[in-house]
Write a structure and sequence with these properties.
The chain has helices at residues 92-101, 119-134, 137-155, 166-181, 189-196, 200-211, 215-232, 237-244, 249-260, 264-273; strands spanning 6-10, 18-25, 30-33, 39-52, 55-60, 64-67, 73-77, 83-90, 109-110, 115-116, 157-158. With 276 residues, the protein is an alpha+beta fold.
Length: 276
Amino acid sequence: MSEAERARFWRHPAVPEVDLLKARYVTHRFSRHVHDGYAIGVIIAGVEEFDYRGSTHRAGAGEVVLVNPDAAHTGQAGTAGGWAYRMLYPSVAAIGEIATELGLTYGTPHFPEQVVRDPAVAALMDRAHQATERGDDLTASTMTRTLFARLLTRHATPRPAVGLAPEGARAVRAALDVLHERLVDPPTLEDLARVVGARPFPLLRAFKEATGLPPHAYLNSLRVRRARHLLRSGVRPARVAAEVGFTDQAHLSRHFKRVVGVPPAAYQRAAETYKK
């Protein structure tokens, strides 16, 4: 990471099921990937540009970015000077718990707009994020919960159904199960199609429509997701690479940073710090 770029990733014990990132990027580019939870942030300076399910979005200073779970997206500088932001990555369970407390019983919440201008929410997000940096547990937990509640009441809707034919949806669900089980030894597209009872090209089209990614890219997202869990558990990066199916530690580092925004070693150091 160049001197002009800096990033810090952590999980504060007072804010369970929520990871945090504070970063400034200029040349760094996030590869197309998905998160199993939400990605919610506020732009502090500059402009971030990102593709979200085939549409390009630009978010400037003071705007809020809302990325839904399992939605394929990228991330890169929208201007020559890059961008700075504060991000929160709450799990589906964390957001779902607050939705239930608010009486929102329509299932998994969904944010239909990916960039919103809401000064009150942006200011609250900035204060909540800074409270976790200071280690102010009561303020951090109170403001973060208030932030998510405000986002849900102002900007969330019921999650829309995926418009796949039943047979295509069945094949995709089965293919996802296979990829989860075979991180280290994944099948070819032809073998994957054969296992789930589909033809290769129809499966590829249905898979991309459902996830926004082809199977090999989705597999790398799964590997990074598993790597994060192992790193938080204290497994060294070299061993993590082998356990999730990357050829070596350099291969892990390259994919990990393109998805998470920091290298595996930095991610693990942050996790160890907040265990103490």
